[in-house]
Amino acid sequence: xxxxxxxxxxxxxxxxxxxxxxxxxxxxxxxxxxxxxxxxxxxxxxxxxxxxxxxxxxxxxxxxxxxxxxxxxxxxxxxxxxxxxxxxxxxxxxxxxxxxxxxxxxxxxxxxxxxxxxxxxxxxxxxxxxxxxxxxxxxxxxxxxxxxxxxxxxxxxxxxxxxxxxxxxxxxxxxxxxxxxxxxxxxxxxxxxxxxxxxxxxxxxxxxxxxxxxxxxxxxxxxxxxxxxxxxxxxxxxxxxxxxxxxxxxxxxxxxxxxxxxxxxxxxxxxxxxxxxxxxxxxxxxxxxxxxxxxxxxxxxxxxxxxxxxxxxxxxxxxxxxxxxxxxxxxxxxxxxxxxxxxxxxxxxxxxxxxxxxxxxxxxxxxxxxxxxxxxxxxxxxxxxxxxxxxxxxxxxxxxxxxxxxxxxxxxxxxxxxxxxxxxxxxxxxxxxxxxxxxxxxxxxxxxxxxxxxxxxxxxxxxxxxxxxxxxxxxxxxxxxxxxxxxxxxxxxxxxxxxxxxxxxxxxxxxxxxxxxxxxxxxxxxxxxxxxxxxxxxxxxxxxxxxxxxxxxxxxxxxxxxxxxxxxxxxxxxxxxxxxxxxxxxxxxxxxxxxxxxxx
Length: 600
Hints:
The protein is an alpha/beta fold. It folds into four domains: 9-118, Rossmann fold; 119-208 and 471-566, CATH 3.40.50.1910; 219-339, Alpha-Beta Complex (Syntaxin Binding Protein 1, Chain A, domain 2); 342-435, CATH 1.25.40.850. Helices cover 49% and strands 12% of the residues. The chain is built from 25 helices and 16 strands. The strands form four sheets. The chain has a seven-stranded mixed sheet, sandwiched between helices. A five-stranded parallel sheet has the order 2-1-3-4-5. Strand 6 (121-124) and strand 7 (127-129) form a beta hairpin. Helix 7 packs across helix 8, helix 15 runs parallel beside helix 17 (377-391) and helix 16 (363-372) packs parallel to helix 18 (397-408). The model is unreliable at 1-6, 243-254 and 579-600 (pLDDT under 50).
């Protein structure tokens, strides 16, 4: 590559790319060695470089995502240090938007551009993600369909390994675009059908915006919301362990580290991740109690043989559970304390009423009281989104909007504008006719989204993930597995977006001697709580197969493939920024005499 030069290179990297490279090299020390002299890309570092007036002929290497915020910093430096050699390595590859941006502003000549293509990341045995940040925003706010093309190219690599997928269930307009692009690329690559993967379900996030905004109850969903799961990992530091344990000399545990949540490397977490957080808490307490009882048994027993057996039991328990119990007890304490707060209980009761298709009593008073105390704005906006989506708008929305701007500040105007643009917030009195031919309440009833017999102690349905509410997409997956899409076609057509059903739909019900692997593809992202719901469907299918007395020779297993893993915090954190970006670019270009006539 051109970046290899006799001159010393100055290397800069952004946090996202750093984490991605960690996944590839798998070893933190190895990645540290590979870029031992690298700095993270932040404005302060670039300003310091300019101030120090370093070698104007230095080779500069930037390893970064193809996003405007980072590129604007690099462009600023390239303008001032025009004699330097600038190299851009985009992870996971350049986008059409960035190519157009560089071309439109005649900036291509300034940089040597390379791509480190990282797309298909196996997060777990049943989960593959492209980890494309902000795809949800690009698709549904910016109405940019280029990420769908990138997704199709990446998905083609899976088909190159497993063969062309024959049976395809498609729901949603962007899912249809994905399928059309994929068909074209399959033909260009001359892929042949195989029996490795039986079929795929492709869903557009647009058909169910409700689920990502709904409160998490599963343990992994709450871990993601509270700590942020990044490519199947979270960051742990020594504060998650007691001082007593630290003094015991287990130094491997007590430092800042990347903690994997994959079932391949963390068998303990895989046992509790799908549980309701209260059940996970109960399980942790039982383990601690078991350890306490065994310890007492060893102290109080005089029989040598019994003591030896107890010591062996304790040793095995400690070796397997000690680290996981310490870490997860810390997680659970924080999660449990947060969720038992009275505010959260009231919030969830209001949310639950909306999900059932009804309007909670005194909801306007609740909004007013909540805002008057200037509590978390994101939480109130989240509940407003759920109301708007389930009630086809919010009564007196513009009065609420005025109160939000007065109390929380007018800078939130852009956040509200983005939510309105995506039709997540709208005034019920002024809203146009819904895209859905049936109301949410009717769809909720016809698809049995609410389980009236929900019992946390006896789980019989994937609706347990939201305390008795089943997301629309999960119910459609169940119907497809039962071969009922054709029978429910009229209902499916009332949900926005095109519906495609394979002509040989009943093939899914036919017996054969192989496991029928089906890819469940999400365009626009999926939440961890929905992932747990699909895992429950998988488990239920396996249990039915294992316990069946009939001559069943095959079963279905689902593998999730998505472009992004969402949570409501990520969504809100990425909204409301577009205006400020445009303003920054315009100001910068004027300062540097670069044309602003191009569309921003």
